[in-house]
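Notes for week 9. Today we move from apo structures to complexes. The key idea is that a small molecule is not decoration. When we ask for a structure prediction with zinc ion present, the ligand SMILES becomes part of the input, just like the chain. The input block below holds both the sequence and the ligand string. Read it once before you look at the output, and try to guess where the molecule might sit.
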Amino acid sequence: MTVDDRPISICEHLSASVATEYHVWFTGHQLDRHWVCDQCRGQFPLLPDRMVEATDGLIEHCRNTAAWDGICGTPEIRHRPSDLKFTRETFATPCLGNEPWVDIQPKPGRDGDWVVILKSGDVVCANPRQGTSNLILNLRELSFEIDDGTGLLLSSRFDYGVIFQTFGEHACVFELSTGAITAHISRGKYLTGVSHYSVAFLEINERSLIVVATDWNRLDIIDPSSGHCLTGRSPTSHNEGEQPPKHYLDYFHGQLFVSPKGNWIVDNGWVWHPIGLVRSWNLHAWLNRNPWESEDGPSLQTLADWFYFMNGPVCWIDDSTIAIWGWGSDDDWLIPAVRLFDLPSGQETRWFPGPKTRSKWELPRKKIAPSMFFDSYLFSIHDDFGTAVWDVFSGEQLLQDSSLNPVQYHPGSKEFLSVASDGILLSTLS
Ligand SMILES: [Zn+2]
C-alpha cells in the first residue's frame, strides 16, 4: 500500500467485522478518504458519527475481512495557474497522401517528419510544415489485409518497421530501406480480439531488436533482419488434458512499452476472469541470462490489476517510472487518474486524479489513438474533453484545452498532430 492509499478512518461496522464489503469514501479534500460499509455509504455525504481511526492493524484486519466494493465521493483534482498554452497551425492534407491513412508514427529525429501507412500499402514520409510527401516504400505480400485496425511501429534507429493487426493475429517486420518483409509473425488465433498486439522495438548496443508475441502467452525477442529468435525456450504450451509444463504462463500478453533507455518492458495484458494485469520485467535479464524471464523470472513484477478493465493508457515518465491510467479495482468504479510505479521495486509510489483518456472497453475492440504522452509534462487526451497538461510530480493540472484532440505526438519536434476538417493541425506547448 502506498502512503496515498491509507484511509483516515473506518466505519464501526467494518471495524467490528460486521460488514464484508467496503467502499472508499473520498472527502473531496486532496486524496483524503475513509472506508465505510455499504449501509454507511448510503448516507453519503453525511459521514457516520462513529468512525474509528485507521491504524495499521485495523487496515490490515479490514483488508482480510472485507472486499473492496466501490467508491463514493471524488478525490480533489488540483489545479495550478500557469502561462502554458498550445500554439497551433493547420496545414493542407495532400502531403499526407491522397488516400486516408491508417496509422501514423513520428519519424525519429528533430525534423518533424511523420511516417504514414496507407491502405494501399504505401508508406509515406511526410512533413506538413514543409509540404513534402515522399513515398518511401510499398508493402506487398503481407500475411493480412491493411485496414483501419492496422498498426505501425518504427525502430528508433529507423532501420526496421513492423506492421500488425492491432486486435488480430498477424504482424510483419520490414526493412525500411528496401521494403523487404524480413519476418512474418503470428500470435495464434486464441482471443486475439481482446488484447492489443504485443510488439515493441528496443535498441541494444546500437542494434535494433523487436519484442513480439508469438503465441497468446508467449513473447520473444527477435532479430528484425532475419526473424531469428533470441529467446528460444520450450515448451510454453501443452495439449488439452496434459499437465502444464514448468514455467507455463497463463497470461494473455498485451501492448508493450519499452523504457526510454531500454532496460525495462511493461506488458499491458490480462488473465481470465477477465482481469487486466500490467506486468514488467528486465530486458537485459531476459536477453542475456534467462529466456524464461517473461514467464516467471526474478525481475518479473505485477504492477496494476483491475476486474473487467484492460488495455488502458500507459506511458513511461523516465527509465524507472511508469504511469498507468485508472485508479480503482473494477471497471465499474474506475476513477480517471494516473498511478506511478517504480522499477525495479514494482511499488506504486503515488497517484493523482484527473487525467481523462481514451480508454473505452467495448467489444469488438477497435484501434484507438494513444492518449497519454510524457515530455516534461504529462499530457492526457480525451475525445470529448480535449487535452490536459499535468505536473506529474505534484499531480496538478496546469492547462486544459478542450478543443485539442491530437492522435500522435512527435518527441523530436515536440508537436502534437490532430486531424482537422481543413487539414493537419500541429500544436506545440509553449
Ligand atoms: Zn458502516
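The first helix runs from residue 12 to 15.
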